[in-house]
Amino acid sequence: MSTEESRHVYRLHSTLELPLEDLREYIGDATYPDGIADVEITRRNNTLILKAVAEDENVSKYTPTAQLKASITENRVYEEDPDERRSSFRWDEDEEEEIESELVEFAAFKGDRETVLQNSLLQYEMFLVLCGIAEQTEKGTLTAISENDGDLEATRIVDGEIRPADVEVVEGPRDRQSSQGGVNWRDNKFIS
């Protein structure tokens, strides 16, 4: 079995957000996993696409490689936390001072696997790039179940910090017998 066949991302959920400037800086300085020569960043209106460039020169330029997709939003960032400022307000102050702020563009990697991580060629490698991005964020969570060389791996990164995670197998709704809650349409006396 080749290495490419034994690396998959089965489940992924992301709520990651980071300033666009920080993301560009990280991608520019990053060391990529084997198989990825570079990551191209393309912006289309309020969508950001990070596309893997394959090291393998035999990959056709028409073959879609894995890509990460983020939406771009503008958030107002304050020099000082406005809530803290309000709590320190004194009644004898004549006028509240304007808090210094600026509009900052953020890249938001939000959604499940098909929304955030697209295309199968180099998908696991781009998942590793996303994990590196997750470690740079101050806000958001990345959870995933992936396979690497036959072993299932759980990933959980919260606010830039790697946290313990386990893969847990539970009985799903499809595994239960119909007598445990569903309607058994075949033996229903009300249907003739």
Word description of this protein:
By secondary structure, this protein is α+β, with helices and mostly antiparallel strands. The protein has a domain at 15-78 and 101-140. It is built from 4 helices and 9 strands. Strands 1, 2, 3, 4, 5, 6, 7, 8 and 9 form a 9-stranded antiparallel beta sheet that branches. Strand 8 and strand 9 form a beta hairpin. The protein is globular, with a radius of gyration of 23 Å. 20% of the residues are buried. The model has no long low-confidence stretch (mean pLDDT 85).
For the secondary structure, the number of strands is 9
Series of secondary-structure elements, N-terminal to C-terminal: EHEEEHEHEHEEE
Radius of gyration: 23 Å
As a percent range, the share of strand residues is: 35-45%
Low-confidence stretches: none
Q: What is the oligomer described by this structure?
A: single chain
Helix content: 10-25%
Please give the alpha-carbon distance between the first and last residues: 53 Å
Count of DSSP-assigned helices: 4
Average pLDDT: 85
Described by strand count, sense and barrel closure, the largest sheet is: 9 strands, antiparallel
Overall SS class:
alpha+beta
Short description:
With 192 residues, the chain is α+β, with helices and mostly antiparallel strands. The chain is built from four helices and nine strands. It has a domain at 15-78 and 101-140.
List the helices and strands and how they pair.
Blueprint: E1 7-19, H1 20-29, E2 36-44, E3 47-54, E4 67-78, H2 82-87, E5 101-112, H3 113-116, E6 117-118, H4 123-134, E7 141-148, E8 151-158, E9 161-162
Antiparallel strand pairs: 1-5, 1-7, 2-3, 3-4, 4-5, 4-6, 7-8, 8-9
